[in-house]
Amino acid sequence: MRDTGGGLIRRGATPLLALAFAFAAGCTTADSADPGHLDALPLLSSESDLRIGDFDDPDLGFSRVAGVDLDDEGHIYVVEGSVPEIRVYDTEGSVLRRIGGRGEGPGEFGGAPSFGVVGDTVWTIDGSLQRITLFDREGSVLSTARAEGVPIALPHAYGYVRPQQMRPDGLFTGSLSMLRSLRSDEPPTGVSPTDSIPVPMVLFDAQGEVTDTIGWAGRPPPRMWRPPSDEPSTLELIEVGDRRMRVPAPPTVLPHWMPLVDGYVAVETPLARSPDEGTFTVTRIGLASDTLFHREIRYRPARYSPADLDSIAARAARGGVGVPMGVEPPPVPDNVDQIARRLRSAMDFPEFKLPVQFSWLAQDESVWVRLAPANEGEETASWVILDPDGSPRGRIELPSAHRIFWHRGDVFWAVEPDDYDVPWLVRHRIASD
Q1: Which are the contacts of 147, defined by CB distance < 8 A and separation ≥ 6?
Q2: What DSSP character marks residue 129?
Q3: 3-state SS assignment for residue 316
Q4: How far apart are CA 267 and CA 288, in angstroms?
Q5: Dihedral of CA 408/423/357/220: which sign?
Q6: Which distant-in-sequence residues (6+ apart) come within 8 Å of 183 by Cβ?
Q7: Can you name the residues that pair with 241 across neighbouring β-strands?
Q8: What is the number of other CB atoms lying within 10 angstroms of the CB of residue 292?
Q9: Closest CA to 217 of 208, 205, 225
Q10: How far is CA 74 from the centre of its chain?
Q11: Hey, what long-range contacts does 261-264 have (CB within 8 A, 24 or more apart)?
């Protein structure tokens, strides 16, 4: 049904899914007696009580939400990435003002910025223009400056430690956030793949200058660069007629790192070795490379079924190897079934699925871990929520198309597409036990 009757805001408590979730078929009630097991985590539910958006009016509705934050008065700040601008709403969801717009002048953005609200300051980091811009909450520019970051020499590349988020004291924490391969006319970095490569955790001021080094990471984030001793990334292509096709590869087991103002959180998902038990871990590391918490969650592994692998191969056959941005993708080939069979025969997947799809670090430093579906194409996604101290809070199920952008305490905001794929920003409250 076409959803236009709500205008800017639609209210009313709408229960979300809070269904029992088993990561794989065959879980037994015995697992629930194990406090460290996935099935022992309490099931949480939530209700939505505020919707912001519009079906017809692009000045009110959203096209691409790229960030959400709230100020101390409960006003909602949303980055609309297609403009790009920051839209400010009152506590009832009515538009108060807009900040920014596309351009290169003061107060403008080259692309959707990362941003946040600290006290009376709205901070933005524009990766396209490599600059920090501060606004007051009315949208007036307080300062703007380039922030090129600190280069880190890597084998065959340079990494850059750049500002990531503003602290209450007005300084910005930095982390390794970009890699640049060496150009053909540049000399070697002089770093060997077997060298130790510590990465500084630094503070930047609002002018983009480094003010202090507050800690060190022993190595770059594994998904950005890893030593040869780690599992190598493979990219296998096969010839199918006159086409070169990428063979689907299994999800990586490399840890996912999420930077904090005082360290980082790492989520690790090793491959399970038996059908009886697998584990994934969430670890918080401090500035002195000390472990602040380490949580292990056990689960019953799910095997890749023939239907799962066939579906992966068929999807790759329809999509090909991908094309550069701005290049028209090739048409779906007539012999897509033949290509899928060739890809399927070349695939090399492990016996068991990884338990985690991805993870997200919330504004209150709680950790949300999205579990991989037990079957391809499932319409719901199960999340594990850990409190800021690492204590597992529980599991919650949401429609798989929903994207969570903000969470603090019992409230979270998610972007939810309607039946016409129009995004709405929706506030949810996690029900009390």
Answers
A1: 125, 130, 131, 132, 162, 163, 172, 204, 208
A2: T
A3: helix
A4: 19
A5: negative
A6: none
A7: none
A8: 15
A9: 225
A10: 24
A11: 261/165, 261/167, 261/173, 262/214, 262/215, 262/286, 262/287, 263/201, 263/215, 263/287, 263/292, 264/175, 264/217, 264/221
pLDDT in tens, the chain (433 residues): 333 333 343 333 333 333 333 333 333 344 445 678 999 999 999 999 999 999 888 788 899 999 999 999 999 999 999 999 999 999 999 999 999 999 999 999 999 999 999 999 999 999 999 999 999 999 999 999 999 999 999 998 999 999 999 999 999 999 998 899 998 899 999 999 889 899 999 999 999 999 999 988 888 988 888 776 665 556 788 887 677 788 999 999 999 999 998 889 999 999 999 999 899 999 999 988 899 999 999 999 999 999 999 999 998 888 754 444 444 555 666 678 888 999 999 999 999 999 999 999 999 999 999 999 877 778 999 999 999 999 999 999 999 999 999 999 999 999 999 998 999 999 999 986 6
How many secondary structure helices (H) and strands (E) does the chain include? 2, 29
What is the token pair recorded at 327? 């290049």
Q: For residue 34, which of 277, 273, 266 has the smallest C-alpha distance?
A: 277
DSSP state of 317: H
Distance in angstroms (rounded) separating the CA atoms of residues 393 and 290: 23
Using an 8 Å Cβ cutoff, are 397 and 380 in contact? yes
Task: Look at strands 141-146 and 150-154 and give their pairing.
Answer: unpaired
CA distance 159 to 178: 6
Q: Is 105 exposed, middle or buried (0-12, 13-18, 19+ CB in 10 A)?
A: exposed
- Look up residue 248 and give its DSSP letter: P
- pTM for the structure as a whole: 0.85
Q: In the structure encoding, which two tokens stand for residue 331, read together?
A: 């048409």
Tokens of 190: 């002089």
C-alpha to C-alpha distance for 118 and 99, rounded to whole angstroms: 16
Interatomic CA distance for residues 367 and 348, integer angstroms = 31
| CA 171 – CA 205 distance, rounded (Å) | 5
Q: Cβ of 276: how many Cβ atoms within 10 Å?
A: 9
